[in-house]
Amino acid sequence: MSYINPQFRHPCSNTNEIGCTRKDYEGVISTLCAGCGHDSITAAVVQACFELSIKPHTVAKISGIGCSSKTPAYFLSQSHGFNSVHGRMPSIATGANLANRDMIYLGISGDGDTASIGIGQFVHIARRNLNMLYMVENNGCYGLTKGQDSATADVGSAAKGGIPNEFAPVDLVSMALDLGASFVARGFSGDKEQLVPLIKAGLSHKGFAFLDIISPCVTFNNTPGSTKSYAHMREHMEMTGKVDFVPEEAEIKVDYKPGEMTDITLHDGAHIRLNKLGDDYDPQNRRGALAAEEKAKEKGEILTGLLFVDPESHDLHDVLGTTTKHPLRNLDEKTLCPGAKALEAINETSR
Amino acid sequence: MSYINPQFRHPCSNTNEIGCTRKDYEGVISTLCAGCGHDSITAAVVQACFELSIKPHTVAKISGIGCSSKTPAYFLSQSHGFNSVHGRMPSIATGANLANRDMIYLGISGDGDTASIGIGQFVHIARRNLNMLYMVENNGCYGLTKGQDSATADVGSAAKGGIPNEFAPVDLVSMALDLGASFVARGFSGDKEQLVPLIKAGLSHKGFAFLDIISPCVTFNNTPGSTKSYAHMREHMEMTGKVDFVPEEAEIKVDYKPGEMTDITLHDGAHIRLNKLGDDYDPQNRRGALAAEEKAKEKGEILTGLLFVDPESHDLHDVLGTTTKHPLRNLDEKTLCPGAKALEAINETSR
Amino acid sequence: MKPLKTTNEFVIRFANVNGTGSWSANLLFARTAFRMGIPVSPKNIFPSNIQGLPTWYEIRVSEKGYLGQRSNDVDIMVAMNPQSMAADTKTVVSGGYLIYDNTKRLGSHLKRDDINYIGLPLTEMCLREYEDPKLRLLFKNIIYIGALAALTDLDFEVLKNLISDQFKGKERLIKPNIGALELGYNYAKEHFDCPLGIRVKATNKTDNKILIDGNSALALGALYGGASVVGWYPITPSTSVVDSFKKYAARLRTCETTGEKNYAVLQAEDELAAMGMVLGASWMGARAFTATSGPGVSLMSEFLGLSYFAEIPAVLFDIQRSGPSTGMPTRTQQSDIISCAYASHGDTKHVLLIPSRPKECFDMSADAFDLSDQLQTAIIVMSDLDLGMNDNVSEPLEWDDKREYKRGKVLSEDDLEKMTERFGRYLDKDGDGIGTRTLPGTHPSKGSFFTRGSSHNAYAAYTENSDDYVECMKRLERKWETAKTLVPKPEIKRKEDGATSGVIYYGTSDYATQEALDLLEQEGHSFDAMRLRAFPFNKDVEEFLAAHETLYVIEQNRDAQMRTLLMKECETDPAKLVPVLGYSGRPITAQEIREQIEDHLNIKKKKAA
Amino acid sequence: MKPLKTTNEFVIRFANVNGTGSWSANLLFARTAFRMGIPVSPKNIFPSNIQGLPTWYEIRVSEKGYLGQRSNDVDIMVAMNPQSMAADTKTVVSGGYLIYDNTKRLGSHLKRDDINYIGLPLTEMCLREYEDPKLRLLFKNIIYIGALAALTDLDFEVLKNLISDQFKGKERLIKPNIGALELGYNYAKEHFDCPLGIRVKATNKTDNKILIDGNSALALGALYGGASVVGWYPITPSTSVVDSFKKYAARLRTCETTGEKNYAVLQAEDELAAMGMVLGASWMGARAFTATSGPGVSLMSEFLGLSYFAEIPAVLFDIQRSGPSTGMPTRTQQSDIISCAYASHGDTKHVLLIPSRPKECFDMSADAFDLSDQLQTAIIVMSDLDLGMNDNVSEPLEWDDKREYKRGKVLSEDDLEKMTERFGRYLDKDGDGIGTRTLPGTHPSKGSFFTRGSSHNAYAAYTENSDDYVECMKRLERKWETAKTLVPKPEIKRKEDGATSGVIYYGTSDYATQEALDLLEQEGHSFDAMRLRAFPFNKDVEEFLAAHETLYVIEQNRDAQMRTLLMKECETDPAKLVPVLGYSGRPITAQEIREQIEDHLNIKKKKAA
Ligand SMILES: Cc1ncc(C[n+]2csc(CCOP(=O)(O)OP(=O)(O)O)c2C)c(N)n1
Ligand SMILES: Cc1ncc(C[n+]2csc(CCOP(=O)(O)OP(=O)(O)O)c2C)c(N)n1
Ligand code: SF4
Ligand code: SF4
Ligand SMILES: [Mg+2]
Ligand SMILES: [Mg+2]
């Protein structure tokens, strides 16, 4: 059954291929601070889903606790959402995905939610290559509890309190790379042009897509001393290349000279295109990606863009050998229950 | 007050500089399986402490839960030990160290204890550079609960159950490097010659010393298909260089040709000497260490030896600015309690 | 010294070294007696260690059906572990038997006048018969079983059949095993006056019964109950619940043609994650469970509170062991009652199901999934090490093929399509405190809602409004009342003439209580009896409480935890609830129960006098 | 319409927008009244959000000292938030005042006949006076405070002094602030008949008192009690305990010459780690604490069990908020009683201290460290958001410089040196259930032992022996008995003629209960009263329970959690314990208490009739 008929999309139409308007991808009004980076990310999610013509109800939105984790209420109101407990979004997402491999999973977390209390679950969801897009709205601080440093705060970075952090930061990107995540990217809430295609690619990728998004907290960590401020990001942002996301059906319109572009085909036929800037960057080389990230950090730069993708990886269900016919949660009693006869046989062996 | 008078140590005497025998460094009899790698590590700890002439009672032994975590009972019976709960040794060690910076902290954990349930605490203790030696007795499985795969099991490695693991392993070494640990090394329970100096160096290092020790579980994971078996280790072990640990007072006896040796002076004047084998390996280059570890993994080799050390790092107390005069737990009431007058002043401002 | 004489009523204990494969040999004894028609209760008493420490295997053989732990004393001690031999010798009752390896001479400190010594040259025999040192170790156990067959009159044919059954598929192992049995059998026949005074005689008390461990039964219940997602973390004594589920599911829930699995089992990184996975899967609409023991319950407590307040189904099997903290991981107890009933901060309470036997494990496990879906909250099945890891005599497991899963109030795509009013997830339309769920992805434009652990109104919207909050909390209380009508009733046995006193018990105190009641009856004390099977307590429980002056509450913990629940939830005067407790890590015995009840009766008598 | 007339007995509420700095302005009102000698109870009612949502600040001014929340109604509403204005208008009592910004005309839907409207052209004034938009926002709040000073007859000198005190060190801010105050003051004087019927009149009811929040008092208690290690994780409403500790320690516990710190505060990665750090530090011999709220307690529960069983001191401040799960993080409740008292699996119980006022926060905080060292177990101080985050009138904090820390049974190097017998960590030499500790590193060859959460014998050696285990569990019970003699006694007020009924209450229900008792007294109902201050309950509690026929147990949770503890631990018949509950997230009010008690009395009367 299909409720929304695919429609021809006029280039300047307000509806997408499935006849939805941008409004269909919005949620309730945000209660975050005016200017909060998280709100820009919300807007980017809306745009990405609109442009991908995703059926909103096929998305499951899952989050932990924090200002960032509130945002799933602000987009896709036709999707089911789950604002769970602090730091445990990954396990909820894992269970949900195990139960139903056919939905699109969008996990939203904060840097406190992921890099502190949730780092254990983050590590393990990454290595299991769960099929989902995991976004961290990374502001280097605990917004909701009033601005304490989080574990992603850089050495020397100072939030509103003025005291520079001296602990080594958790770099979620290099961690995800090291743990075998099959898609790793970084964006900036202030750069929608780059962020939207990254979200689209992440949603389309089969496997664990990790997207670290620097998202300034205007209330507590947008200070001159902060490395997660708008100003700092604008000055120190580096890109691996300009990212384009091209859905399966779209014709290829622009011509690139050879060597100008890397084209990666995802499992569903869509393409990610990386238009090279300066250096050759190979987003399918994990070790190279790690090295580039390390190098950028050493130079005090923040590397953004698509860092790594393995379009052929095995996701958790592949490893477990789960049935591909139906989502587990849809299995009927006949399939689930072995029946009285089988039980009698078991009784027999227990005598 | 000093109970044990330092004595002159005869080269072939059975006592060390403080007059202790090897027996003084032993504990109760092990109840582990015959042949368990963990028992060899216990022996190496005994030897290292004996050779370092450590006063046993100045060591605090802390562990989680598992076969590995039982081992602190098997060495240094004059030390206080703490066999805590599963996966939480790091926080116990952190609290203890905060309370008393003057002890030597030896944390023992297993790969289940650290890489699964305890990975969050591991990440955070590493980035805080707590002054301790943290050893993981890594057998790629859960010994005490009968052989399930742990998160350090390599892809394709099969334990007694016979089913090869398909999840990306947690590489604690690269994680520690990435998180800013100031000393990172790997040993093998079957190679005491390399292990003992690594333990000695780790105990002497000021800051977080992480030592990953491959330690075969003979009962559940010493199979032909396992990459944590004695056989596999013997075949695939690579070394960064031969490690020597030279205490402060010792004269330098052996002459090396220039370029044959890297000499690193630790904060207490002791030296770590790395005798180069083949390739130039610089153990003070974090990025290089990460790259070497990644390369070795790609080749299916297990890199052992001292991978990285930063002898000048700031440990947690440096960062916090804790008093250097006395351990906090020794402060007297006069120092701790601000007294009635100060309180009256506070009352005054609250009117 | 008079040798003990008893048929079908005795305790035999095997003392072995951990990790030497003695368990499967000793099980042969139990299963043979069982197949001969005599109820048995084998118990494995093992250390928290993998190899080399003392371990015991004890079988109570009881035609009368007294299958609780009898006491620390045994009638036959098969003392195969030199390390524990001195202590083991002491536990033999006067007139009982000590069976030992006489390859080496028995130390004189092990000599007692009042017991019988049966020496078998086991090491010698093995040395002679087998080349491979591994086989020598293994077959030693089989040989003494063979000898015991002769000594206690086990049916040798039954024993041999068991071997054949056991090695189905590995036929070449059958012969040597039977050979080893015969070796022992013949040796005993030749050297002793077989059978001894203690013997087994075929009867029909196990007709149609099965012998199975509680954890396997729970796993089967989950399989039959339709569980398809399992997130778990290893911990003794719960691990085998998941191991069994995997084993049975691989056989019974896998597509024969494609090999694809109609289930997913994932080893989590810890218990928090395991419970998170269960909640995520249940939220998505699959039936999901996890299994753990005390420390895991503590770690899951935040998530259990989420389940209560956000109203998400979940099934948790708590296989209790001795607490607190790490406690004694390989010893039994019933001490997580309060921590489970009230797990998590704030005003929370959870439904508990409490099985006593494997059959009930199976039933309650399957029922737990129905209940959890109906009540939209976590259901905790409270088993323990004694029931979970030991083979227990049980009625056979039964499944009615006409049974349908009760999925509770879940709206389908059609339901939503037809719906005209606004969907309110937490509206209490039926007055039973239970709202209507929708599953993610059901309908493109109707029924979506936000699940959250923070306070929410009837439409699942975030709220900090006091009235909304209070309404929600009151509705949850109504749901609790509904739960009382859905959970299994207690099992009540009333004396014909109606006793003024009663006993209340639950779970694995069952057998010991039965036996204690018989003993007390013989002394002229008669009691009504109620076996609790669930929390919250329903009307039957309240009536039973009201109907008696004195109630002995039998439990295997120190703090009389179930008694607290009875006081609190049924408004019962503590004065009439007398705690009867055993918490040594060994299952409570009939003697312990009898003594405590008698002590209380004596005090009462004195007071009256 | 008769305007309300009242002096020193009223409620004023300010409705503002979150994140606009209104809090410090509103506090000026409270502190001025306080300095004028009238008891006040300011309460900040804020959303779980950082900026832009409605927030309220409410001050009850009560010369009689009724400082509990009065009700939802207010006498003066300073309605500065258009978003909540409609609702806010409704809460004004008949005859009360609505103060609003009349720069824009008041909507007709906000008009009521029975209240007085006072319009202040605040936006207009600010636009006129200030250039900087930020200042406009800030000073608007100050201007209305100035106006209120005129309207309610606040002492303007006191107000100005407060400003001077507040900006000590930032003197250049004093003038503009006072200017803003005057602006409002003069406007009101000019346009209204000042003062209104509702007014403040200087008296002496706060002589020597202080105004401080409970969390600061807890922090100071910890500082004075000698805490030197803090591991913590941010969570509302507990965060300010640690913030205050850091603030005071930086000033009072730092070496003036070197700047070195005689304390260490570490933000942990989560609550599990925070509690682990506390246990590690306490094991090493420092005094250590953490602070959290409900969700943190759930996460700490495994470690709390370890503290109980391995007998390691620890101090935990639980600043309770509305549960279950995430619940209402910025609303108050007393609903972690059971989860704290019985935290963790197995047979565990924990000592609770329950302060009602800041002074008691301070005292109990310092005492907690003594108790924890003496009892070698975790002590949980149960405060809540209402007490913790709001400024409360309090007796001044006191410290006796002659007081010495009670470190409990810890052997020094000398003690060990002199010791001839074998050291046994868990030997109960004194019969009080408490063994003797040694700290790591004390002596080179004596006194070392192994701390573990698994079962251990008197010499701290690992054991799976049932007798050792039972002995240990029984000793822990003896220790519990000892705890009863050490924890603070309840505060008991008996009627001269001895009432047959009593009320039992604790923590922040204190003021509301006092007021309710007065109201009931006026209606001829008189009660004895007992304020619980600790768990376990000691003899005084038991006697009070025994001495009364009916006891109303007043608490701020749904499940009557303390009542459960009273039943269980004092063997009290539930029939005589009548629950009186308020759990809306707002502090319980005297009215709620009175009504529930009256309802019960009426039922009793009916039954009797
Ligand atoms: C178990 C638990 N501990 C602590 C908290 C309090 N808490 C709420 S949000 C938060 C931090 C959020 O930080 P982050 O994830 O970075 O989100 P942000 O607000 O910065 O977007 C904390 C500590 C909680 N809700 N639950
Ligand atoms: C909270 C908790 N969960 C589970 C367990 C059960 N458990 C004991 S040891 C262990 C795994 C140990 O593995 P590892 O750390 O690798 O040690 P090894 O035995 O392999 O040396 C587990 C899961 C426990 N004790 N506590
Ligand atoms: S506090 Fe920071 S993170 Fe939170 S909403 Fe405001 S700006 Fe955003
Ligand atoms: S089970 Fe494995 S890890 Fe444990 S003691 Fe035996 S060999 Fe060692
Ligand atoms: Mg953040
Ligand atoms: Mg291991």
Query: Which structural class do the helices and strands of chain C define?
Result: alpha/beta
Biggest β-sheet description of chain A = 8 strands, mixed
By DSSP (H or I, 4+ residues per run), the number of helices of chain A equals 12
CATH class of the largest domain in chain C: Alpha Beta
Per DSSP E runs of 2 or more residues, the count of β-strands of chain C stands at: 25
Outline:
The complex is a heterotetramer, with 2 copies of chain A (351 residues) and 2 copies of chain C (609 residues). By secondary structure, chain A is an alpha/beta fold.
Name some characteristics of this structure:
heterotetramer; A: about 350 residues; Rossmann fold; eight-stranded mixed β-sheet; three-stranded antiparallel β-sheet; 12 helices; C: about 600 residues; alpha/beta; Pyruvate-ferredoxin Oxidoreductase, domain 3; 4 domains; seven-stranded mixed β-sheet; six-stranded mixed β-sheet; 25 strands; about 40% helix; about 20% strand; globular; binds thiamine diphosphate; binds iron/sulfur cluster; binds magnesium ion
Write the layout of secondary structure elements.
The complex is a heterotetramer, with two copies of chain A (351 residues) and two copies of chain C (609 residues).
Chain A (H helix, E strand, L loop, with lengths): L36 H16 L6 E5 L3 H4 L9 E4 L5 H11 L4 E7 H6 L2 H9 L4 E7 L2 E2 L5 E2 L22 H7 L4 E6 L3 H13 L3 E7 L15 H7 E3 L2 E5 L14 E5 L5 E5 L10 H13 L3 E8 L6 H5 L12 H4 L2 H11 L2
Parallel strand pairs in A: 1-2, 1-3, 3-4, 4-8, 7-8, 9-13
Antiparallel strand pairs in A: 5-6, 7-13, 10-12, 11-12
Helix pairs in contact in A: 1-7, 3-5, 6-9
Chain C lengths: L5 E2 L1 E9 L4 H14 L4 E6 L8 E9 L11 E6 L5 H6 L1 E10 L14 E5 L1 H8 L3 H20 L3 H11 L7 H18 L6 E2 L10 E4 H11 L2 E6 L6 H14 L11 E4 L3 H14 L2 E6 L1 H17 L3 E7 L16 H5 L9 E3 L4 H18 L2 E7 H5 L1 E4 L15 E2 L1 H6 L18 E2 L11 E3 L13 H21 L4 E3 L7 E6 L3 H13 L5 E5 L1 E2 L3 H9 L2 E6 L5 H10 L6 E5 L8 H19 L1
Parallel strand pairs in C: 1-8, 2-5, 5-6, 6-7, 10-11, 10-12, 12-13, 13-15, 14-15, 17-18, 21-22, 21-24, 24-25
Antiparallel strand pairs in C: 2-4, 3-4, 9-16, 14-23, 20-22
Helix pairs in contact in C: 1-4, 1-5, 3-4, 4-6, 7-8, 7-12, 9-10, 16-19
Bound molecules: thiamine diphosphate (2 copies), iron/sulfur cluster (2 copies) and magnesium ion (2 copies).
One magnesium ion binds next to helix 4 and strand 5 of chain A.
